[in-house]
Amino acid sequence: MFFLFLGMLILQRLGELFIARRNEKLMLSKGAVEAGQRHYKWMVMIHASFFVSLFMEVTLFHKEPAAWWWIPFSVFLLAQLARVWCLTTLGMYWNTKIIILPGAQVVARGPYKYIRHPNYCIVTLEIITIPLVFQAYFTAFLFLVLNALILSVRIPAEERALKEATDYSQRFGRKQRFIPSDKT
């Protein structure tokens, strides 16, 4: 079960990288620019290392699915539905990199109407739930911390780029960072 699950996750990520690369080429052809290049390699390394750590912890320590595996797996499945919602809502704007089209209107519909960075919330849920299915607690804890560290760099870089090149400031003003509200 573990190898099938891991294989499907890796295929999903490879598919997402294909979509991201296609979107990147399209956006760059329209005059988009990339921001946050300095931290991107660290983000990629963290995400790739997550799979290595999960594989090592589960196989070396002979981890089995928890008796309550269906709880984190159900949350994981809900996160996958939300991931598709994010990708389809952003369309050509979705990417693993920070690719900004100057003058574009910020997407404020779909999940982005309710949460500013839903994809990062989804990734965080995955980092917690995937290891919990197999009782890989070390991987869950380590990558929860590493993810928090990279997001502490990534989110400000993304918001700064959006504010400089799009209508982000006008659309969101002083609204809360993660959950947009009508309060300013």
From TrEMBL:
GO terms for molecular function: methyltransferase activity. One of its GO terms (biological process) is methylation. InterPro entries: ICMT_MeTrfase, Metal_cation-efflux_comp. It comes from the Bacteria. It is found in: Membrane. The keyword Disulfide bond does not apply. Signal peptide: none annotated. The chain crosses the membrane at residues 67-85. It is a multi-pass membrane protein. Keywords: Membrane, Methyltransferase, Transferase, Transmembrane, Transmembrane helix. The keyword Transmembrane applies. This is Isoprenylcysteine carboxyl methyltransferase family protein. It comes from Fictibacillus terranigra. The lineage of its organism: Bacteria, Bacillati, Bacillota, Bacilli, Bacillales.
